[in-house]
Write a structure and sequence with these properties.
alpha/beta, 5-stranded parallel β-sheet, globular, Rossmann fold
Length: 149
């Protein structure tokens, strides 16, 4: 598949201080979201399983966008694993899922600043705005090193 080759190529890229880790088992959706963020100038890494997400997050991204339903474990388990690591315990998170989660479930998925969007209800513009907002919170919380011009 074209999307799988594209995702394999971007997943092998080196991490950047402002990169976004996209976690979803829907390869086509990952391709669409990756292209959208790359066009906005945001570096992206992608993971299709919980295990890949946890491994990718060893080098913490500026933001993690995660679905709750993953093939090998839930998004809850990924968040629990990240919460246990000091370097990722305050990561901003965008929960991007098809599920309508209770407030209790949403709280279980929070690390640092956290937003939730339901896939079927969110527009591309809302998705991109949430990503940019959370990347901004990563910058102001000191997660991203200041760059000199």
């Amino acid at each position: 598949m074209e999307d799988e080759a594209f995702l394999a190529a971007v997943s092998g890229l080196r991490s950047d201080a402002r990169d976004v880790l996209l976690v979803d088992d829907d390869t086509a959706l990952l391709g669409v979201l990756t292209r959208q963020l790359l066009q906005a100038g945001v570096p992206v890494r992608a993971a299709r399983t919980a295990r890949e997400a946890i491994a990718e997050a060893r080098t913490p991204p500026a933001l993690i966008v995660i679905d709750v339903a993953l093939p090998d474990a839930s998004g809850y388990e990924v968040i629990d694993a990240l919460r246990a690591r000091p370097e990722s315990s305050g990561l901003p998170v965008l929960i991007y899922t098809a599920l309508d989660l209770s407030l209790e479930d949403q709280a279980r998925l929070a690390l640092g600043p956290t937003r939730m969007l339901i896939k079927s209800k969110a527009t591309d513009a809302e998705f991109q705005a949430a990503v940019m907002e959370l990347l901004g919170s990563a910058e102001t919380s000191g997660r991203e090193p200041r760059r000199s011009s």
